[in-house]
Amino acid sequence: GKAFLAADAGAAADMAGLEMARITPADVEGGAPLAARSVVADETQPALRKANIAGNDLVLTFSEPVVLASVTPSLLALTDSAGNGDPLDADLPAVAGADGREVVLNLA
Asked: For the chain, how many helices (H) and strands (E)?
């Protein structure tokens, strides 16, 4: 397929704090957003790399950013070493942690 990119000013900044310039059809030679040179489908499933309890929070760290709305607490369980335990409550609040790779579930 084909993919193109348009961006508002400030969509990203470099290490010196200089913001990215906007990219709109009028800004690009030929009057179109920038065409992608290639499009690579994401075929890598996120893997759970680490799980820590910090106070009342269960902090899950994944191998790649995850969509917060896709996290289903009732499909997770805190268990003993033999695998005995109960699933987490489906209504546990979840918030995004560091860089999209962390999900924080409040156990309180």
From this structure: 0, 8
pTM, rounded to two decimals:
0.65
Question: b/e map of 63-87 (b: 16 or more CB within 10 Å)?
Answer: eeebeeeebebeebeeeeeeeeeee
Residue reference for tokens 């579930």:
105
Helix (H), strand (E) at residue 59: strand 57-62
Question: What distance in Å separates the CA atoms of residue 102 and residue 84, rounded to the nearest whole number?
Answer: 25
16 CA to centre of own chain: 25
Segment 85-105, tens digit of pLDDT: 999 999 999 999 888 899 999
**Do 22 and 70 form a contact (C-beta atoms < 8 A)?**
no
d(CA 42, CA 56): 33
Tell me how far apart the alpha carbons of residues 10 and 7 are, in angstroms, rounded to a whole number: 8
Query: Is it the case that residue 35 has pLDDT exceeding 60?
Result: yes
